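Protein modeling request. Please complete all fields; requests missing the sequence field cannot be processed.
Requester role: graduate student
Desired output: 3D structure, token encoding
Chains: 1
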Amino acid sequence: MTRVPLRRALSDLPPYVPGARAAVGAAAFKLSSNENPYPPLPSVVATIADAAVDINRYPDMHASELCEAIAASLGVAPETVVAGCGSVAVLGHILTAVCESGDEVVMPWRSFEAYPIAISLAGGVGVPVPLAPGGRLDLAAMAAAVTPRTRVVLVCTPNNPTGSSVHADELDAFLAAVPEDVLVVLDEAYVEFVRDPQAPDAMALFAAHRNVVVLRTFSKAYGLAGLRVGYAVARARLAAGIRAASTPFGVSHVAQLAAVASLQHTSELLARVERVVGERTRLLDGLRAQGWDVPDSQANFVWLPLGDASTAFAERSGRAGVIVRPFAGDGVRVSVGEPEAVDLFLEIAAEAAPR
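Delivered output (355 residues):
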């Protein structure tokens, strides 16, 4: 039987594995997807309800009001902001806008598992660079991996799933070593959780380097994961290209207004972020007190480098009531949840702690 052929790239495409959910009817804390454990603010929920009456209409195609609000919050021009259906979609549009078939994209690994997928779908070739000890990005090695075929370098900071943040001096040296015609994407999905004084100022780097694009999201700190809103900040010419490559009407009307309302209540939302940061500290301290070797985290999750024991540990944790995210052969990522979830996970971890 003759069949319509699929692109060859699809046969080698790694599947995106979402965080596991509790079985229907089961009671468990879901710490597998780096979600904010707290719902949107009541004022944001009210905005969502009000916006729902207009879903028979197409949304603003370029999310103009939202881009203007983001620009005002960051001190940049509105034409430099491009919104999309989550930062994953925006990354795909960035790669589509700048990559020709066969262009190389340097990325850290292990890192965000959507990277290889987005690169392949854009026709690019991923060049993975192993992490340094402690789950940190090896920026010197990433710079050394750049060749004349390199079009983009992805810098995930804090890195997902290890939680490490690059330092400003490291990033300065890296940017000095990378050619100016190579795009550097600073993926800052978890930037609101960073407390490391050595972390870089991405917006200052954007102002200083024409080849820097900053990628952020409303999914994590702002608690809008279910509405899918992310954005990039890029030089106007690059932003226009990314916008041209974007899916028309990619951000729903409801999502646009919810994100605008969230920006209007940033101080209240960031107070919730402080609560998550406090629980992150308690989780890290508790694990280390039990004898676990846990790297520092600047995100809303922690990383247990368990190697081949990762899957078994995650299965044991799930049976005990906490669903975590295993990366087979590498480690387990545990999202920071509500205090009760952290309490239970520490009890589970204590039973398997190194002796």
